[in-house]
């Protein structure tokens, strides 16, 4: 897997999202690409921004979006999420062999611990790891453009069941 080189639109260190700048960025992106806003797209985007989850599967977003508009289809949700990725407002992640998950771009960088038993995802940040990566890149005269770290194992709940 390579890096997601789409620059992320970083807005906030807050855990709750002020949606207005995201909408502004999205509408600017749509105008730049000659795309129109649609009611379904807006409903999907609004639902995605409002979800209280950091990693969202397409099916989850579809289920929530259909509460607002039952005619919204899977393909429309998927295309809208890819549009958010292209606009730099979301990241598409593939954890293990699971389906794509999407997360809103945030200002802070983070890495992931993924439980291979239950699929739980824990976000974390480590200055030590970041410094080590930079040191290794410098040692090899390598200019980093991004990275993602995914560590796989068992969460505390699944580990205690073994």
Present the secondary structure layout.
Blueprint: H1 19-32, H2 39-50, E1 56-57, H3 58-68, H4 74-86, E2 90-93, E3 101-104, E4 111-115, E5 121-124, H5 127-139, E6 150-153, H6 156-161
Parallel strand pairs: 4-6
Antiparallel strand pairs: 1-3, 2-3, 4-5
Helix pairs in contact: 2-3, 2-4, 3-4
CATH topology of the largest domain: Arc Repressor Mutant, subunit A
Number of strands: 6
Q: Level of helix content?
A: 40-55%
Overall average pLDDT: 82
- Which CATH class of the largest domain applies here? Mainly Alpha
CATH architecture of the largest domain: Orthogonal Bundle
Report the portion of residues in β strands.
Answer: 5-15%
Show unreliable segments: 1-15
Shape: flat
Fold and architecture overview:
This protein has helices at residues 19-32, 39-50, 58-68, 74-86, 127-139, 156-161; strands at 56-57, 90-93, 101-104, 111-115, 121-124, 150-153. The protein is of the alpha+beta class and 162 residues long. It is flat and about 50 Å long. Helix content is 43%, strand content 14%. Residues 1-15 have low confidence and may be disordered. Strand 4 and strand 5 form a beta hairpin.
In short:
A three-stranded antiparallel β-sheet has the order 1-3-2.
Task: Name the features.
disordered N terminus; 2 domains; three-stranded antiparallel β-sheet; single chain; Dna Ligase, domain 1; 162 residues; flat; Arc Repressor Mutant, subunit A; 6 helices; 14% strand; alpha+beta; 43% helix
């Amino acid at each position: 897997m390579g890096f997601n080189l789409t620059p992320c639109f970083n807005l906030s260190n807050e855990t709750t999202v002020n949606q207005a700048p995201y909408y502004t960025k999205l509408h600017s992106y749509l105008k730049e690409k000659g795309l129109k806003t649609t009611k379904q797209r807006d409903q999907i985007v609004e639902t995605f921004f409002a979800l209280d989850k950091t990693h969202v599967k397409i099916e989850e977003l579809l289920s929530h979006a259909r509460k607002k508009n039952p005619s919204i289809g899977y393909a429309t949700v998927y295309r809208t999420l890819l549009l958010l990725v292209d606009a730099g407002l979301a990241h598409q992640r593939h954890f293990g062999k699971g389906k794509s998950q999407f997360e809103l771009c945030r200002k802070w960088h983070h890495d992931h611990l993924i439980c291979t038993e239950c699929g739980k995802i824990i976000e974390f940040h480590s200055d030590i790891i970041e410094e080590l990566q930079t040191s290794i890149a410098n040692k090899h005269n390598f200019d980093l453009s991004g990275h993602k770290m995914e560590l796989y194992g068992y969460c505390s709940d699944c580990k205690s069941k073994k």
